[in-house]
Specification:
It is built from 11 helices and 15 strands. The chain is α+β, with helices and mostly antiparallel strands and 393 residues long. The protein folds into 2 domains: 3-261, 4-Layer Sandwich (L-amino peptidase D-ALA esterase/amidase), CATH 3.60.70; 269-389, Roll (Ubiquitin-like (UB roll)), CATH 3.10.20. The strands form 2 sheets. Strands 1, 2, 3, 4, 5, 6, 7, 8 and 9 form a 9-stranded mixed beta sheet that branches. Helix 1 crosses helix 2 (86-98) and helix 7 (280-292) crosses helix 9. Its EC number is 2.3.1.35, 2.3.1.1.
């Protein structure tokens, strides 16, 4: 048996990890825009990246390292994605790291922001060389990686595997727009002192991805820079596989839910539960179709329990389904049941009350099997257009 409980603080509360954020001149408003994570011992590292075919330069730079490399330094900038910058984008990262005054090993670069602009190397270098690598300023880092985020995103857990033996795991992340299954426009940095074997790290990440970051959608767009990075310094000397896998899943779930709730201008965070589908793949297809549908999202924004949009989206997803077996509910309010419309004035009022909540479920019982999948999404309103219409300028 093991116990997992949340604790206050940022990733720098884990022994051997340091971090901070500063203003390096990338954001014109003076907010933090450059941050770092440093470890006083070399860490095993694993990552999962976007499936976008046009991966940004930092991702290509990471993947050029030899398999199984260790690192002790991650440099993160906002405002500039260093994407669609070709070989020059990678060369700029190499030039930047070559000029660092800090003694670091196999440094990793991570960037977020506007696509299609050269990396401002001199500004970033000046900022990075001013870092105090003994800093414990998780809040500063969390602010430095934000773009359109309304708030910082972080969590921490302690995992007790037996009395007197525990490890910690935590994360800091950013993400609010360009959020779509197969990752999102997001960065997530996870640190742990668990003595996790290198061979368990990638499987643990991939297992958790399926029901966390790959299950969320804000706007149906997938970015070029999406990264989930896991760093393990192993200082606790403690490890239990089942406990680690579950704690990592909880950390990633927390970050994913914060991203959905912070969807640019979003007011509603909604779980789309598809149950009793013929196969898990069909359940996933329908759930993600619902979380991505613009018509569904605008109905959520208008607090309109328009179950016709739900049914239409399921049908359009081309899964195995029938009106005669379909049941649609908003939380526990059933509006359509196996071919019968239950949507009278009383039921509509009850469903409308559900849609006024900040969080709720839309449950779609397909009635074709036993498979299920839950995707997570949010509403889409005027603020989203306002933010993204002038994002570059």
């Amino acid at each position: 048996m093991f116990s997992i409980f949340p604790i206050k603080g940022y990733i720098d509360q884990i022994d051997g990890f340091y971090c901070a954020g500063i203003h390096a001149g990338l954001k014109p408003n003076g907010n933090n825009d450059l941050g770092f994570i440093y470890a006083d011992t070399l860490c095993d590292v694993e990552a999962v990246f976007t499936r976008n075919k046009f991966q940004a330069a930092p991702l290509k730079h990471y993947q050029a390292y030899e398999k199984g490399f260790k690192t002790n330094f991650v440099l993160i900038n906002s405002k500039n994605a260093n994407a669609m910058t070709g070989q020059k984008g990678i060369d700029n990262i190499n030039r930047l790291f070559a000029a660092l005054k800090h003694d670091v090993t196999n440094p990793i670069m991570s960037s977020t922001g506007v696509i299609g602009n050269p990396l401002p190397v001199e500004k970033i270098l000046a900022g990075a060389n001013s870092f105090d690598l003994t800093s414990k300023d998780g809040e500063g880092l969390s602010k430095a990686i934000m773009t359109t985020d309304a708030y910082s995103k972080h969590c921490m857990y302690e995992v007790e595997v037996e009395k007197g033996k525990s490890f910690k795991i935590g994360a800091v992340a950013k993400g609010a727009g360009m959020i779509n299954p197969n990752l999102a426009t997001m960065l997530c940095f996870i640190t742990t002192d668990a003595n996790v074997p290198k061979e368990d790290m990638k499987p643990a990440l991939e297992a958790a991805m399926h029901t966390t970051f790959n299950a969320i959608s804000v706007d149906g767009d997938t970015s070029t820079n999406d990264t989930v990075l896991l760093l393990a310094n192993k200082k606790s000397g403690v490890y239990a596989k089942e406990a680690f896998f579950e704690a990592l899943r909880m950390v990633m779930h927390d970050m994913a839910m914060l991203m959905v709730a912070d969807g640019e201008g979003a007011k509603k965070a909604v779980a789309f539960e598809v149950i009793n589908a013929k196969t898990e793949q069909e359940a996933q297809t329908a759930a993600k179709a619902l979380s991505n549908s613009l018509l569904v999202k605008t109905a959520l924004f208008g607090e309109d329990p328009n179950f016709g949009r739900i049914a239409s989206t399921i049908g359009a997803s081309e899964i195995t389904c029938s009106e005669d077996t379909l049941v649609i509910s908003y939380n526990d309010v059933v509006v359509f049941e196996k071919g019968e419309i239950l949507f009278n004035k009383e039921v509509e009022a009850q469903a409308g009350e559900v849609l006024k909540k900040e969080q709720y479920k839309i449950i779609c019982d397909i009635g074709q099997g036993e498979a299920s999948y839950t995707a997570y999404g949010c509403d889409l309103g005027y603020k989203y257009v306002e933010i993204n219409a002038d994002y570059r300028t």
